[in-house]
Predict the structure.
Amino acid sequence: MTTPNASSAAVHWSVQGMLVEYLTSGRLAEVVYRDSAGQIRMVHDVIRDLFSRAGHEYILLGRGSMVSLDHIITLDGRTLAVSR
């Protein structure tokens, strides 16, 4: 028997695995995300770090931008955003 949380955890680990792959390969990624003002942003950059701070997970892009995972909409065309 599965619970809704188990399903969410599977998606979470799938996203984590994909982000780690980008991090370790140094591959350029297209990241579409919603910034703190609510605007949609698109950048082409490498993922330099993946970390947690104050209970939230973030990526650090090569040019120094820090983006919360829950603000990422797509990564190379793959949807990451969870419905809110």
Remarks:
- The beta strands are 29-34, 40-45, 47-53, 56-61, 66-68, 72-75, 78-79.
- The longest strand covers residues 47-53.
- The chain has one helix and seven strands.
- The CA atoms of residues 10 and 16 lie 10 Å apart.
